[in-house]
Design goal:
415 residues, alpha/beta, Aspartate Aminotransferase, domain 2, Aspartate Aminotransferase, domain 1, 5-stranded mixed sheet, 18 helices, 12 strands, binds pyridoxal-5'-phosphate
């Protein structure tokens, strides 16, 4: 179903909930069944050889391909209006494996300085292993432009950063990458393809942690990388000749699948793929509700005397409010909050009743976490300060509860 997303005229949800059924499906089942077999038998050995040689479509071994996972991949390709998707065991596996498959020693990459904590840690590891890494404030494309070197291969940004909600200068960075023939990787986890499609700002590869909003229920881990078709892989000399088969747009993802998924083996399991696929049916409905809830809460909290600062792109005071308005259907459902001086963020979180104190985000349930003391603890005070992460900062991932119940919970916890 290559590029089907680009030609579909149905709405986002109508397309997604019928995606499985319109692919090849067993017995008229309306969900793609969970295929647990790790291998696939062939009556004719010549057919097996043809599949191994890429001359025929088919399934070989579960580390690389599985029909349930393929159905989910096709669904994500439709969501992102891309060309092809490869799924992984987690979002981190999708990011790490992709960079591992495409980069070589001596290459240089430019990353946003406001990255998801584990991505930040991962890129530092690439630095230790011979890839040069420059972190820049990606809210201004000029900082990316200033960091470009002759050996720069790739630029990696997130749409909305977590927890301070900085919005990357996505359009201008896309123009810059096109001009310098750089691979443009956009982590779309915070916005999801329902709020924003990175293909529209010239992204080459789109990363999604399926664990978050796409799966949406906190019951399965997964990740994906989607090829948008924007990048001219013919000009990228880190590709092996054996993966330069078929359309040029697929050369990069061919190598990610083989050198990355096949050789590294961070494979998404079929049960997790099924959970994520069912969860994704309601992505648009959940996002509409969660984003609306986040906007309601931030509007209330912004002027609350016990609150020092609220970081949310939906607020007019947010530095990238206009850009977020222009690019995203809604400003997301994540916000950061700093309490007024003298108030203890642990006490505040403990008083919340409906909101759960937990890691993770993009769940149907609202979640809160004291950032500096948990997910950003390992990087140390100095790096936290450079990322603008105050010790009192609490990150909220707002869920789909009724807005009046969430408002009441915040009011009693601050009261
Ligand atoms: C959670 C997250 C990841 C990693 O995803 P996992 O599925 O937890 O491995 C990557 N990027 C962003 C922006 C995330 O929020």
């Amino acid at each position: 179903m290559a590029a089907a997303g680009k030609t579909s005229t149905a709405g986002f949800t109508a397309t997604i909930v019928h995606a499985d059924r319109r692919g090849s499906i067993e017995h008229g089942s309306i969900h793609k069944p969970v295929h647990t077999a790790v291998t696939f038998a062939y009556d004719d050995a010549r057919d097996l050889a043809a599949v191994f040689q890429g001359k025929k479509a088919g399934y070989t071994y579960g580390r690389q391909v599985n029909p349930t996972v393929t159905a989910l991949q096709d669904k994500i390709t439709l969501m992102e209006a891309g060309v092809a998707t490869t799924a992984f065991a987690t979002g981190m596996a999708a990011i790490g494996t992709t960079l591992f498959a495409l980069l070589r020693r001596g290459d240089h990459i430019i990353c946003s300085a406001f990255l998801f904590g584990n991505s930040n840690s991962l890129f530092n590891s690439f630095g230790v292993h011979g890839i040069e890494v420059t972190f820049v404030d990606a809210t201004a494309a000029a900082n990316v432009a200033a960091a470009i070197q002759p050996n720069t291969r790739l630029v990696f940004v997130e749409t909305i950063a977590n927890p301070r909600t900085q919005v990357a200068d996505l359009v201008t960075i896309g123009d810059l990458c096109e001009q310098h023939k750089l691979i443009y990787c956009v982590d779309n986890t915070m916005t999801t393809p329902y709020l924003f499609r990175p293909v529209t700002v010239k992204a080459s590869l789109v990363m999604n942690s399926l664990t978050k909003y796409i799966g949406g229920h906190g019951n399965a881990l997964g990740g994906a990388v989607t090829e948008t078709g924007n990048y001219d892989w013919a000009g990228f000399d880190n590709l092996y000749d054996s993966y330069k088969t078929g359309a040029v747009a697929s050369w990069g993802i061919n190598q990610i699948k083989k050198k990355g998924l096949r050789d590294f083996g961070a494979t998404l399991g079929p049960e997790a793929a099924h959970h994520i696929s069912v969860g994704s049916d309601t992505l648009a409905l959940r996002m509409d509700r969660a984003c609306s809830n986040a906007m309601t809460l931030c509007t209330y909290l912004e002027t609350h005397p016990q609150v020092k600062r609220v970081y949310y792109p939906g607020l007019a005071a947010h530095p990238q409010h206009q850009l977020a308005k222009q690019l995203f259907r809604r400003p997301g459902a994540i916000f950061g909050l700093e309490l007024a001086d003298g108030l203890d963020c642990f006490d505040f979180i403990n008083k919340l009743d409906l909101v759960i104190c937990a890691s993770n985000l993009g769940d149907t349930r609202s979640l809160a976490i004291p950032v500096a003391h948990s997910i950003f603890h390992e990087m140390g005070a100095e790096r936290r300060a450079s990322m603008g992460i105050d010790d009192s900062l609490v990150r909220f991932s707002i869920g789909i509860e009724e807005p009046e119940d969430l408002l009441a919970d915040f009011a009693q916890a601050l009261g």
